[in-house]
Write a sequence for this structure.
């Protein structure tokens, strides 16, 4: 894991002081709300329906037990005893008082955490693969590159007032567990002639105009990564649209001028700046990489697991993934209990996960973009003990990537932008399908309560979009999306439904899938083979 | 220069300057006018103007004023860096809706003169300019990035 040195710490400490001063100026009236808004947003502080919401960064989703415990402490001391893990691998609290925000940041700074750039029209928290450093299929750990980008983007003086927010993801495997091509910039590390480099994709995103990122650069080495990204951002900052907030993301710029023209402009900019000494030396990447060396694994750890407990065996098959090291495994802790709120965890549950990481998991945890928590490095021999502790805490739902492992935005229960509720719908779907979800196999369902698509509905095998229809909540159904390496955007089935109607419609869709599927096909595979029509017939008759 | 010098211009503007040469008193012309009459020495760039159009003429320009129609419009930050990266050493002025919290970032992009629409609080500015001990990234100012401090 990355550990701050005196420089990192002094920057985060300065941020606490700066924000404390900004809050004081706001409270005294020296700053208007209009002037304060972009300042607080750059620190993840939103004004929501009921209260301030504070979003805390978990860079590339990685944290240790001490940091996790701090998140539990904040939930207890400053909020209502729980927090909400988000699709950006962050955590947010929904009931924060403005006057407390500086103190919360000061507490976070003691464990090398912050809320820098978790909102606002700037470069946001860098996201990555939750299995980084543990997956057998990666060419390298992507997180040192993500950390390099985190530092470069932190208080970047030129890119703090971009046309719109800017999200970057870094992965290093062919299997995409981070929805990389649905980011403003997606980076995939790969090796060419023995050299590690990056393929750069630009212009992906969800929102009201979903687009898949285009490949803009097929290979860039680490010694010029920052100047290349600087060129990508500068072209966007200069030419991205500022006349319409809904057309201001970089995906619209690429769409309007075309990927070729964008690439030419970036190359021209890159040629002008690549030799200005903007890039850190390779020694800096080496310094960071050394900190991600990973734990010393027990090479003699037994590779077999006692599967005699049937409930445990179900969880093992669903929520435990292969690790690169023999005798070890990757555990995904589901934050999607049937009937619960997707992504929420209580302070006690947060503490328990910190305990498990410290006791069994080399003191490391990850947040996933699907709003679950991962223990990336555990011994197979400890799996039963971990499962037992999770079960006692209500955290052992064996539903990873099944229909009840739902991504849902906070929706109308919390969010001032929402048109419809997401949480009660997620709860109903979980309850309806709990008994047969394993029979349905991998089925990623995602719910957004408005067209801003925070719940990633475009990327759901089944997606649901809440809209306002003449004052009542209405839900449109989409099929065929994916945020993985087989990335695609879902298509709307037809007229929308009320809350119960959409649950019934999903049941008709899944019944039709079971009738149509060929051996080994996931729902998405069947949909791609047979198309929308059979499902439309099932839904609308 | 750490703290600005406050100057009142003949046009009645209050300038915050981080340079001590004489204030250029020729009025700034628009980019179109400048490109049409090449003897002007001061130019005003609107937010959407292409700063690169000035690069062939930098030797004759003493002042570039970059307009910020609203504090949310960040195009001027890139314009400033482009001019500094090309070697421009004249006065680079940010004019318009410039807020005190933005000035430290603008300094890093190469601005050394400010004509904010509304007066900024001097004490707040002094505090903000001294707040961050070192930056993470290299920009258009002389500040040394953290990676350079780490590796020499």
């Amino acid at each position: 894991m990355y550990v701050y040195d005196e420089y990192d710490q002094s920057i985060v400490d300065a941020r606490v002081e700066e924000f404390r001063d900004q809050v004081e100026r706001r409270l005294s009236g020296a700053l208007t709300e209009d002037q304060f808004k972009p300042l607080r947003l750059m620190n993840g502080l939103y004004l929501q329906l009921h209260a301030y919401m504070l979003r805390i960064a978990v860079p590339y989703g990685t944290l240790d037990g001490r940091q996790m415990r701090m998140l539990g402490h904040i939930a207890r001391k400053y909020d209502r005893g729980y927090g909400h893990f988000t699709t950006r691998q962050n955590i947010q609290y929904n009931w924060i008082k403005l006057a407390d925000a500086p103190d919360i940041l000061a507490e976070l700074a003691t464990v090398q955490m912050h809320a820098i750039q978790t909102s606002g029209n700037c470069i946001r928290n860098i996201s990555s693969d939750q299995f980084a450093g543990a997956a057998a299929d990666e060419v390298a750990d992507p997180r040192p590159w993500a950390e390099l980008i985190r530092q470069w983007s932190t208080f970047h003086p030129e890119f703090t007032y971009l046309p719109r927010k800017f999200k970057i993801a870094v992965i290093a495997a062919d299997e995409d567990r981070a929805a990389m091509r649905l980011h403003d910039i997606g980076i995939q590390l790969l090796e060419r002639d023995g050299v590690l480099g990056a393929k750069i994709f630009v212009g992906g995103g969800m929102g009201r105009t979903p687009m898949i990122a285009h490949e803009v650069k097929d290979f860039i080495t680490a010694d010029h990564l920052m100047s290349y990204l600087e060129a990508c951002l500068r072209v966007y900052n200069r030419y991205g649209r500022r006349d319409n907030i809904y057309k201001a993301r970089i995906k619209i710029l690429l769409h309007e001028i075309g990927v070729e023209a964008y690439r030419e402009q970036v190359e021209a900019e890159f040629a002008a700046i690549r030799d200005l000494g903007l890039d850190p030396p390779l020694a800096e990447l080496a310094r960071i990489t050394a900190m991600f060396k990973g734990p010393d694994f027990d090479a003699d750890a037994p590779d077999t697991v006692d599967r005699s407990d049937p409930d445990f065996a179900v969880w093992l098959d669903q929520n435990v993934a292969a690790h690169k090291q023999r005798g070890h495994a990757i555990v995904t802790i589901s934050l999607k209990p049937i009937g619960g709120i997707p992504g929420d965890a209580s302070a006690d549950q947060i503490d328990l996960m910190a305990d498990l990481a410290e006791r069994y998991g080399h003191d490391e945890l990850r947040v996933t973009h699907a709003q679950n928590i991962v223990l990336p490095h555990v011994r197979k021999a400890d799996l039963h003990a971990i499962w037992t502790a999770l079960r006692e805490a209500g955290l052992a739902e064996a539903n990873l990537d099944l229909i009840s492992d739902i991504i849902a935005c906070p929706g109308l229960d919390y969010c001032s932008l929402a048109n419809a509720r997401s949480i009660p719908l997620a709860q109903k779907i979980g309850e309806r399908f709990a008994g047969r979800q394993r029979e349905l196999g991998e089925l990623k369902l995602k719910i957004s309560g408005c067209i801003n698509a925070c719940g990633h509905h475009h990327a759901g095998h089944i997606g649901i979009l809440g809209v306002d229809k003449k004052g009542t909540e209405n839900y449109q159904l989409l099929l065929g999306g994916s945020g993985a390496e087989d990335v695609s955007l879902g298509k709307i089935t037809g007229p929308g439904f009320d809350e119960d109607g959409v649950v019934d419609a999903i049941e008709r869709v899944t019944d039709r899938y079971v009738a149509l599927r060929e051996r080994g096909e996931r729902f998405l595979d069947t949909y791609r083979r047979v198309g929308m029509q059979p499902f439309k017939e099932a839904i609308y008759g | 220069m750490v703290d600005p010098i406050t100057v009142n211009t003949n046009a009645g503007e209050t300038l915050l300057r981080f340079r001590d040469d004489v204030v250029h008193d020729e009025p700034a012309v628009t980019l179109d006018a400048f490109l049409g009459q090449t003897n002007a020495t001061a130019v005003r760039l609107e937010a959407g103007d292409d700063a690169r159009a000035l690069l062939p003429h930098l030797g004759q320009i003493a002042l570039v004023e970059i307009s910020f129609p609203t504090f949310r419009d960040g195009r001027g930050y890139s314009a400033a860096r482009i001019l500094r990266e090309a070697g421009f050493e004249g006065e680079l002025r940010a004019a318009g809706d410039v807020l005190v919290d933005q000035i430290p970032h603008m300094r890093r992009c190469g601005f050394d003169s400010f004509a904010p629409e509304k007066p900024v609080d001097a004490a707040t500015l002094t505090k903000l300019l001294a707040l961050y001990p070192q930056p993470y990234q290299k920009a258009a100012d002389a500040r040394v990035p953290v990676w350079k401090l780490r590796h020499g």
Summary: Chain B touches chain A through 37 residues (CB under 8 Å). The CA atoms of residues 94 and 114 of chain B lie 5 Å apart. The two ends of chain B are 24 Å apart (CA to CA).
